[in-house]
Every structure is written in structure tokens, then in C-alpha cells.
UniProtKB/TrEMBL annotation:
It comes from the Bacteria. This is YhfM-like domain-containing protein. InterPro entries: YhfM-like_dom (IPR058780). Keywords: Membrane, Transmembrane, Transmembrane helix. Residues 136-160 are annotated as: Disordered. It comes from Paenibacillus prosopidis. The chain crosses the membrane at residues 6-25. Residues 44-128 form the YhfM-like domain.
Amino acid sequence: MKKGFIVGIGVIAVLAALSLFLFRVSEDKVVVQRMVDFETAELNSQMEWTDRDAVRSFEYAVRFAKREPGTVDIAAPPYSFTLGDNSYLLWISPDYELGQFMKAGQTGTLYTVRQSLAEKLKKLLSQADSRFGKAAGTLDSEVEGSPAPSDEAFSSPDERSAAPAYLDESKFSVEERPLIHLINLRIKYLFEEDQESFIALYTESAPIDRTLAEDFPRFKITSVEVDGGIVINEQRSLFEAVVQVKESKDFGEPSSSVYVFQKGKDEDAEWLIADVD
């Protein structure tokens, strides 16, 4: 009986030590920044927490996250955060139930944050960042220059030079975000009249004029929204996706456009636009 008692005490001690290890808080601060892309932080966007509860929320989010299988192709994150010597890219939004992160330098491996911890991170970010949830809504908001639609299309010079409308990538699932990002890039390159970057968004077999010397589209997307669900199918040799959107050109009436995307099955394959109808 005495031996059993000693064993029981030993088990309790081990469990207590394990609990202390799992639920420890190792760092004394967490630093968060808004991101422009995977490597560039937005200027003057740094947020810092030193209180124990906030630091604990970020540490637990990392410690108890679930690693997703395989590799992912994902749009740029709205945030990054640093705990001690470790940095992470963070995808989180008030419109998306779960948060996800990726270790800096380990592109393609994604971790999903528990819902309860994701809610704590959302609360912290919403209190510290007045633009929380709008990170991907204005892609490259400080775009220089303007396209060349006719002056009559706009009611004022401010409307003509203002940045175009973009889809909020944070409102879409991990699988859908690369598609939405391509739509946003297409809108961006149309606005900037960046012909080379515009053409690079398309598959080699896409039905577009690759010279586009004189026929490059000259309009700005002034409103855009996804109309219906996003369909992703696996074909024999590739993946194909279809996204229908409603968009306005130069403040005109909205009309429907259908984007068709394709991606090969190679490990490093990326989504490209196959057609826009």
C-alpha cells in the first residue's frame, strides 16, 4: 500500500510538472506588425504587448496549434508577430472563424489556431489596430500614377486618381485566397497599366493578346464582389477553379465576369488565370 501511495504521488508530481511545462509563459513581450507582403512590414504599424495575458494568448496560439497536412499556396498575410527569437506570419480576420500562422522561413507549412485562442487574438488586435480586418481590402493602397480612362467617366479628379476596388482576401478560406489574390493583382495591374505583370498572371494557353501594345485595357475596377460560391475541381492533370464576380468599370453599372483558374499538380505549381469571360 505504501508503495502504491508513493507511485501515486510520483504520477501526480509528473503530471504537475508536465502541466507547468505546457502552460508556461516563456516570453515577456509580443510584437505585431501589419504586413504589405510576405517580407515587407507596413511602416509605423508596430504593436507591442507586455502584459502576461496578452503574451500568453500568442504563446498558446503557437504551442497548441494544429499543423495542416501538405503544403499550401496562400496570399500574403495581414500580420506578422515575434515572440522572443521566433517570428511568424499571421492570417486572422474578424470575418474568418479560425486564425492561421506560418513560421517565418518555412513557407508552405500552415498551422491552425484553436478557435478560443483565435478569438483572444482577434480581441487584442481589434483593440490595438483600427484597421483590423481591412488588411487585404486595399491592396497596395499607396499606388502611384493613374490609368487613362476618359475624364468623362469620373465626376471629379479625386475619383479618377483614387485606387481601384479590391476583394478582401481575409474573408476567404485558405484554399480560395490564392484565387482572390490573382483577381486583385489583375485589377491592380490594369490600374497601373503594367502590361508585363498583367500577362504573367495568365496561363500560356490563355486567349489573350500577349503583345497588347495598343489594345491594353484602359479602365479601372471601381467595385467588385464575388457572386456565388467558388468552385475548385480536380481534373486528371490539373486543378481548375471558377469564380464569378460582379464588377463595375469606371463607376458604371455592375456586370458579371467569370474567372477560370488552373494549376498543375507539381509540388511547386501555382494558380494562374486561364480565362476571364
